[in-house]
Amino acid sequence: LDYARLVFRQIPSPTAFTFNSIIRGYTNKNFPLEALRFYVELIEGGLVPDSFTFPSLFKSCGFLDEGKQLHCHVVKFGFSSDIYIQNTLMNMYAARGCLTSACQVFDKMGEKTVVSWATMVAAYTRSDRLSEALDLYRQMESKNVTPNEIALVNVLTACARARDLETGKRVHKYIEEHRIGFDLVLWAALLDVYCKCGCVSLARQLFGEMPERNLFCWNIMIKGHVEDSDYKEALRLFREMQFMGIKADKVTMASLVQACSQLGALELGKWFHVYIVREKVEVDVVLGTALVDMYARCGCVESAFKVFVDMPRRDVMAWTALIGGLAVCGHAERALQTFHEMQRIGVKPDAVTFVGVLTACSHAGLVDEGRSHFDSMASIYNIPPSVEHYGCMVDLLGRAGQIGRAEEVIRSMPMAPDRFVLGGLLGACRIHGNLEVAERTAQKLMELDQKHGGTYVLLSNIYGSLQKWDEVGRTRELMAERNVKKPPGCSLIEMDGEVHEFVVGDESHPQSAEIYAMVEDMISRLKEAGYVPNKSEVLLDMDEEEKENALCRHSEKLAIAFGLMRTAPGTPIRIMKNLRVCSDCHAATKLTSKVYDREIIVRDRCRFHHFRDGCCSCKDFW
Fold first, then answer.
1. Cα first-last separation, the chain
2. What is the mean pLDDT of the chain?
């Protein structure tokens, strides 16, 4: 460009064409100010711009005022009807956040080309006005406007963000019927639509048919599997990606770390962290937050803190991940201290932050502080409490034994309570033995969903703890009558980089015989230490010996036995469970930690349980 400028200065009488060349050069090399200066020089020299002058200038407009001035020049010099200029003018207004003006330009165009339609669809999509973007595409269909690939990509992007599967499939059909050749960007957009709309199997099929794939396509597919909760498949896809020599980036890593977080796969998560450092992958806010969340969800609070402190920039999501992680790990005081520090430095909490704060108050029994934080949501931060926040308040009051106040909170809710709110109240009734409220709450839960087995299980446990065996029997009969199945317990344990999954009564594991032998030995030693099986946890109609055998086959007992078999003495055992830990397994795990001198960390649906020396961090309150 410097040389071009020197040549330009040697021309005694440059024409508009010459000016256009130098303006286009500076625009293409991203020197917008220089491009605009040459335009001013053109005008001051008495030359008249032509239709090729303005498109480059609109791309160089960094501010809306500059664009408006150039728009005036377009009108003054008689180019208002030039389609190419109109298209770049629309794009300028949309890029500068003035969608209303872009719409006005589009509506006033006498003739619209496919580029005009594509530009407007892209403008709506960028502004997150997805319904208008899709409506515009339907207008294109009705007017028989043949979309180009840019228009199709923009429509598919809108479909993905709006979760509009029907329109996405229609675009896919159009591509196939018109035999549009392979275009990497277009196929990536199709992958994104199917993944975002939950059709991951269709996306995977399309992915397999692609003649070539770039990192963007791999990232879409890996993230799709993670969002579909198919974490193991996401990890397998990463291994395939490595085998093909494709280097992961921060987007890949964020998805994979999230998979480890959901699986409770700490060792694999640590490996990914090492990979990030070794390969010098940029740790932005998203990846840093994913690492904080992974370590916190795996019970490694200090590692989560270290990642958080090392992050170059921390937004509300990062603070929220740390606060929430500390809360579920039982570090309520540190969670609240972190929240106060967040407020002190001026980071505004969001609705998710308050879920973590209220959870911390609940686990610590801080009723007054929890109420204060709940009230501050609307009064200070203008955040209307959602059903989830009310659920936290019910849990907080219920855990503290204030069942009546918890019911009052439910009655005061501006929305109908869901099963999580009512389930929290029912759980509190189990802890405190409040049968009257338990029966009333269970009835409401059954009205919401009479097929949900958890309600019957909790109600039966309450009856059992109060020695009301006839009611236990009637609850079983009601389950059988309504064909309600107790959701199967599933426990995960990571060993040597592989996640092993156990379900209740599982015999599919290759080492199943050794595992059951270990369980038998484990139960024998626990009984010597005072363990008495809690047979009220078994809802099936069977004799006492069969009930005891059923309890021995619970998924977490199998996972713990496997951990004892495969790890050296003194090594911590980490388990992740999909359901709330039952009272029998909780009591058994406490004794196991003492008898075998092991730290056992169990993450259930509600919180972390750190078992050590016969005690649990939840203090038998979960």
1. 69
2. 91
Give the whole-angstrom CA distance, residue 365 versus residue 425.
Answer: 15
Q: Quote the crossing angle between the two packed helices 316-328 and 285-297, to the nearest 10°.
A: 0
> CA–CA separation, 336 vs 428, rounded Å?
23
Using alpha carbons, select from 398, 456, 460, 468 the residue that is nearest to residue 427: 398
SS3 content of the chain, % helix, strand, coil (to 5): 65, 5, 30
List pLDDT tens digits, range 394-429: 999 998 999 999 999 999 999 999 999 999 999 899
- In sign, the C-alpha dihedral spanning 26, 27, 33, 37 is positive
For residues 103 and 117, give the distance between their C-alpha atoms in angstroms, rounded to a whole number: 11
pLDDT at position 540 is: 55
Confidence of residue 489 (pLDDT cuts 50, 70, 90): confident
pTM of the model: 0.80
User: Could you tell me which residues come within 8 angstroms of residue 100 by beta carbon, excluding any fewer than 6 positions away?
Assistant: none
Q: Do 11 and 18 touch, CB atoms closer than 8 A? A: yes
Closest CA to 275 of 312, 320, 241: 241
C-alpha span between 44 and 48 (Å, rounded)? 10
- Asked whether the predicted pLDDT for residue 458 surpasses 90, the reply is no
Whole-number Å distance between alpha carbons of 137 and 153: 11
Report whether pLDDT(546) > 70.
Answer: no
Structure tokens at 149: 């690939």
Chain position carrying tokens 């996972």: 559
Residue 126 to residue 431: CA distance in whole angstroms: 51
Burial class (CB in 10 A: 0-12, 13-18, 19+), 181: exposed
The dihedral built from the CA positions of residue 272, 274, 280 and 282, taken in this order, carries a sign that is positive
Q: Let me know: does 421 contact 387? Beta carbons within 8 Å.
A: yes
Do the strands 573-577 and 490-495 form a parallel or antiparallel pair, or are they unpaired? Answer: antiparallel
What is the residue whose two structure tokens read 């000016």? 19
Alpha helices in 298-412 (DSSP H): 301-310, 316-328, 332-344, 351-364, 367-379, 387-399, 403-412
Tokens of 516: 């059951």
Pair 171, 159: CB distance under 8 Å: yes
Question: Are 605 and 579 spatial neighbours (Cβ–Cβ below 8 Å)?
Answer: yes
pLDDT digits (tens, 9 = 90+) for 95-137: 898 999 999 999 999 889 999 999 999 999 988 899 999 999 9
For residues 158-177, give the mean pLDDT: 92
Beta bridge partners of 601: 574, 610
Q: Which two tokens stand for residue 533?
A: 């099986």
